[in-house]
């Protein structure tokens, strides 16, 4: 009888250990964030890179890791369905250049002190992984940055960023809506082109 109980104990222990290993296995979205974080830090903390080189590399990283097309469509909102296929393509190309240049300029301007500290991770019912982090900027204090990651097709992509509880998509959707309402798509793209030039010169 003791032998049977001992065998049962071994089986239960094996099951528990298997469950713990499975629970500790990171998801594709978590691995994606770890890679994104490591690459961001390697660029921003590189002493051998000029500011312009850092911007260039961050820009390339954004185009690779972010769901640029989906973000652009979400930011434009309802007008997306009203414009032609050619206008959608022209806008998407402009938006990719705009968001990569803008975010690269903002990220490189941060006075990063040390690491990007992960505070919390959770996955919502919509399958989006939200990673809450804190970035120490020295004299400017600590800034909370939330990263939203979801699968686009089979690959995880960065879909949104919230800085100090201000969503990038929500903010840009509001700003784009005002410009589009006043100046139509052509006027909006003119403003985007001007901002691209300004951020490239900074």
Structural commentary:
The chain has helices spanning 2-24, 28-44, 51-65, 68-76, 85-109, 168-201, and strands at 116-123, 129-136, 142-152, 155-163, 166-167. By secondary structure, it is an alpha+beta fold. It is built from six helices and five strands. Helix 4 (68-76) packs across helix 5 and helix 5 (85-109) packs across helix 6. The longest helix has 34 residues, at 168-201. It starts with a helix and ends with a helix.
How is this structure best summarized?
By secondary structure, this protein is α+β, with helices and mostly antiparallel strands. It has helices at residues 2-24, 28-44, 51-65, 68-76, 85-109, 168-201; strands at residues 116-123, 129-136, 142-152, 155-163, 166-167.
Rg over C-alpha atoms, rounded to the nearest angstrom: 22 Å
Characterize the largest beta sheet: strand count, sense, and whether it forms a barrel.
5 strands, antiparallel
Overall morphology = globular
Note the total helix count: 6
Q: What is the helix content?
A: 55-70%
As residue ranges, the low-confidence spans are: 5-22
Query: Gap between N and C termini, in Å?
Result: 78 Å
**Largest sheet, spatial ordering of strands:** 1-2-3-4-5
**Which percent band covers the strand fraction?**
15-25%
Structural class: alpha+beta
> On the 0-100 scale, what is the average pLDDT?
86
Helix and strand succession?
HHHHHEEEEEH
Report the strand count.
5
